[in-house]
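Internal QA ticket QA-208
Title: Verify multi-chain structure generation after dependency bump
Assignee: T.L.

Test input:
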Amino acid sequence: MNSLMMIVIGSVLVNNFVMSQFLGICPFLGVSKRTDTALGMGMAVTFVMGTASLLTYLVETFLLIPLNLEYMQTIAFILVIAVLVQIVEMVLKKISRSLYMALGVYLPLITTNCAVLGVAVLNSREGYNLIESVVNGVSAALGFTLAIVIFAGIRERLASSNMPKWMDGFPGALITAGLMSIAFQGFAGLVH
Amino acid sequence: MNGVLISAGVLGTLALLFGLLLTWVNKVFEVPVDPKRDEIRNALPGANCGGCGYPGCDALADAIFNGSAPIDACPVGGAALAQRLAEIMGVEAKPTQERKIATVVCQGTVDRCKTKFQYHGISDCVAATLVNNGNRACRYACLGLGTCVKACKFDAIHIDEHSKIATVDPNKCQSCGACVAVCPKHVLSLQPETLPVRLLCRAFEMGYLVSDNCKIGCVGCEICKDNCQFDAIVMENHLPKFDMEKCTSCMICAEVCPTGAIWGDFDNRRIAAIDRKECIGCGICKKVCKFEAISGEMKKVHQIHEACTGCGECVSKCPKKCISLRVRDHVRDANAKVGTTQVEAAIPKGAELQA
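Actual output:
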């Protein structure tokens, strides 16, 4: 139980995928103009990462390792992730068309989101068991959601504030992301 | 060999299973789409130019399908598309808006508008504007570096080789408004295609400042306003503003403008004609004519002369409805006034009562 807590705190705060590992930057910058779409993106990524952690663990343990096919890890994982993203896309289209439209091209881009493949590969590298893998996947995704929602909140405020012309829009967003990363470095002392 | 087979087999099985799963999910979560909506989307041009005000052709297709946008909302497709969409939607095609074309509101060609300095920077109007507001003497003038040309997806704008200002090909223009959005000088605007007169100058300055810089700029002399017989012109920021509700297309403003800043559609200027068989010589047309273009004695057939501007004032007033307008085949002669005052003086007041 204690080790699970460590994994959760470590993935959400200390080793936040976006803020201290450079993973998942693409949707982080792309879908962070509004808090509600950012939350939707976070939820979609959480589903994909949680399920991907589970499925990739099963594929790894019961298919790849027994058959000595570890060298096919990348392609097998990408296959799993692509299918999951496709499912999320279909489901979202049915359940919430407005969210589907708001996420736009970033939804299929989860397929190549390095955070998703990253969590699967890290799980197998760290040697996590099934529960640890899923917990790690979900908490890493929650860390991503946390970062993107905070960032979207700041960007909403920035959009209506009086920014210098040269900083308005993307430059300002990137500088904001940098400042947020500095803030997240403060969590480094939480886990030893 | 075995390794290859095993790996291919494993991946293949995995892919097959996933494929089946996807098919099943697709069936469960199928979103019914009305084929009409796809038909509408296919009929739209697909340039995603945003000229309709929606984020793209897909969004417009949805809006038309829901009925929240009119069938002729796409400015690019024009009447032909509206007709096609009307067929799909099963409604009657009737125009809700007039076709608009991008208009260059500047005639400051290099020989008319002075140049402040030689510009050798990036060949782009936005960049050039950053350097002391551009190199044209008039700060409202078209810079002619072709930012609009790049923005136009329909090859409808070109920079004229000699005059160095933008010109729009009205036949190619699809009124998407992309050029209007990018022009840093706001020289381009979307205007109805069939306007009789247009002010082709944006210099919101005192007259002497304009005339120092440009030969064809509006100097705000108000001659157009004074000559307008229908109070359709008001002065705003040293420029005339046309009230198209009141305008009768007489084009007298374009005719009297001393600088030529007002453009008139003289090719389509009209002239009134009286049906000689119907005219009873009541003289009403002569009285209402504001351009002294009608002559004739009481109870005799009246005549319309060359001074007619085609304003149509007499057409609506004629009790016998025997005056009609047609397009002129030659230029109006402003000097050919009949001088209603003299003719009137020749007939004493109340003469018709005695007769």
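Spot checks passed. The mean pLDDT of chain A is 87.
Status: verified.
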